[in-house]
Design brief:
159 residues, 3 helices, eight-stranded mixed β-sheet, alpha+beta
């Protein structure tokens, strides 16, 4: 890239989609943002902290935003990607998926003011961004319509 030309690419955040498998039909957790992107429905998302892997950040953010502790975690082998004009950067976000047999209780933090467990079709209507809809389509295909690939399962190391 010649002398500063181009748009920087960065990866500093993670995205986590939680699925409840035995809720009649699989349900997806979406939460309504209360601060940044106020009013937008989204999945769990947050920054990767210093000395933390992306999958560790996914587990921490899930716990902080919802009170949920994942028993399983998959890397979805897909990425959210978007342009941030105020920073003039392209952001790449690794996507993770966790699932629960039944719909678990949620304890939202102050980043959100509401949550819903919705079908994937309802989720497609609720989310604001085309990147979210692309990711939802792939997650449904790879984690709901078929058994997740065991190579994407992350071996969770608990302290």
């Amino acid at each position: 890239m010649p002398d500063g030309a181009g748009v920087p690419i960065r990866c500093y955040t993670v995205s986590v989609f939680a699925i409840a498998r035995n809720a009649g039909s699989p349900k997806l957790l979406l939460m309504r943002r209360a601060d940044t992107l106020a009013g937008c429905w989204c999945q769990v998302a947050g920054k990767i902290e210093k000395d933390e892997t992306a999958w560790q950040a996914a587990l921490r953010e899930l716990r902080e935003e919802t009170g949920l502790v994942a028993e399983t975690l998959y890397h979805a082998d897909i990425f959210e990607r978007f342009y941030e004009p105020e920073k003039d950067v392209i952001t790449i976000v690794p996507v993770f998926v966790t699932s629960f047999e039944e719909i678990p209780d949620i304890s939202l933090n102050d980043e959100h003011d509401a949550f819903r467990w919705v079908s994937f079709d309802e989720g497609m209507d609720l989310v604001s961004f085309s990147g979210q809809r692309r990711v939802l389509t792939e997650i449904k295909s790879d984690f709901v319509d078929r058994t997740p690939d065991p190579h994407h399962l992350i071996e969770l190391k608990r302290p």
